[in-house]
From TrEMBL:
Subcellular localization: Cytoplasm
Record key words, sorted: Cytoplasm, Transferase
Main location (coarse class): cytoplasm
Pathway: Amino-acid biosynthesis; L-arginine biosynthesis; L-arginine from L-ornithine and carbamoyl phosphate: step 1/3
Positions that bind L-ornithine: N165, D225, S229, M230
Binding site for carbamoyl phosphate: S56, T57, R58, T59, Q83, R107, H134, P135, C136, Q137, C266, L267, R294
Protein species of origin: Parasedimentitalea marina
GO function terms (MF aspect): amino acid binding; ornithine carbamoyltransferase activity
Residue stretches making up the Aspartate/ornithine carbamoyltransferase Asp/Orn-binding domain: 153-304
Protein name: Ornithine carbamoyltransferase
Signal peptide (from-to): none
GO cellular component: cytoplasm
Record family assignment: Belongs to the aspartate/ornithine carbamoyltransferase superfamily. OTCase family.
Record-annotated Aspartate/ornithine carbamoyltransferase carbamoyl-P binding domain positions: 3-147
Length: 308
């Protein structure tokens, strides 16, 4: 049994196997209706709990559909409607759920909730996003990049905007998959030093560049995310927008990257804020492939967790 908590905590060879398996599983069901079962049903007889303490469209639906395609059953639970949100400890919740289900996916605020769940659950726990990281998203992004452009190893990824949870998992992936990452954004929103250090230690070139135009020079992939994440207070919105306005990904910025650079965004996006519609809907954008690949990547992650 394996927990999938963070990309930097997972062996690179196993991460590679998951990406390759996700790609193969996607190919195997290209022409099938979404509700059709996979040929082999690796999750037959398995029950999966999907817990959400924050809103979600992609994570909720892709995990639910993925479990069903693999022959398992899933239940979507809102943290608020559980005793978890009303004083029962994480440890007790983990022990109880482990008596009913074969795997737990949780989207939560504080990372310590995820870690405590993993510590006390006797079944695999998957990180469906915390304030600090979003590893499933980046597994889908690696799959997407490689489908379009081949191996990501040695490529230059540019993160524009807030050095947030999604950026953190990109940094983790840089170290594990062997690509370089340039962060461009205001100093107040730099990614955590610890994560920058981890990626550098693993051999990746990590650059912090305040000038967005300089940052994207030679980029193979440009990535943006919302300027106000779910864990940020709404009262910080105006201040954050003011800090981040110069880091919008628009056609002018993309023209400074490599001509065949891709654009990614985990979604949901705020059109004309962190990215223009021209870029989102343009030929370099692969945002909906990323969304689709959440399904395929997570199916491989779930199989790895269960050894199925
Ligand atoms: N990208 C992502 O995790 O989307 P949701 O918040 O809709 O799950
Ligand atoms: N950084 C965003 C990602 C949403 C999928 C957030 O945490 O709200």
């Amino acid at each position: 049994m394996n927990h999938f908590l963070d990309i930097h905590k997972t062996n690179p060879a196993e991460l590679r196997t998951m990406i390759d398996q996700a790609s193969a599983m996607k190919q195997a069901r290209l022409t099938r209706p979404k509700g059709a079962l996979d040929d082999d049903q690796p999750l037959a007889g398995r029950m999966v709990a999907l817990i959400f303490e924050k809103p979600s469209t992609r994570t909720r639906v892709s995990f639910d559909v993925g479990v069903r395609q693999m022959g398992g059953q899933s239940m979507v639970l809102s943290g608020n409607d559980m005793q978890l949100g009303h004083g029962e400890t994480i440890a007790d919740t983990a022990r109880v759920l482990s008596r009913y289900v074969d795997m737990i996916m949780i989207r939560t605020f504080d990372e310590t909730v995820l870690m405590e769940m993993a510590e006390y659950a006797s079944v695999p726990v998957i990180n469906g996003l915390t304030d600090r990281t979003h590893p499933c998203q980046i597994m889908a992004d690696i799959l997407t990049y490689e489908e379009h452009r081949g191996p990501i190893k040695g490529k230059k990824v540019v993160w524009a905007g807030d050095g947030n949870n999604v950026c953190a998992s990109f940094l983790h992936a840089a170290g594990q998959f062997g690509f370089d990452l340039t962060f461009t954004g205001p100093a107040q929103l730099d990614p955590e030093d610890e994560f920058v250090g981890l990626a550098r230690k693993a051999g990746s070139k990590i650059v912090i560049e305040r000038d967005a135009h300089k940052a994207v020079e030679g980029a193979d992939l440009v990535v943006a995310d919302t300027w106000v994440s779910m864990h940020d207070s709404q009262s910080s919105k105006e201040r954050r927008h003011n800090m981040l306005r110069g880091y919008q990904v628009n056609a002018d910025l993309m023209s400074h990257a490599k001509p065949d650079a891709l654009f990614m965004h985990c979604l949901p996006a705020h059109r004309e804020e962190e990215v223009t519609s021209e870029v989102m809907d343009g030929p370099q954008s692969v945002i909906f492939d990323e969304a689709e690949n959440r399904l395929h990547a997570q199916k491989a992650i779930m199989r790895w967790c269960l050894g199925a």
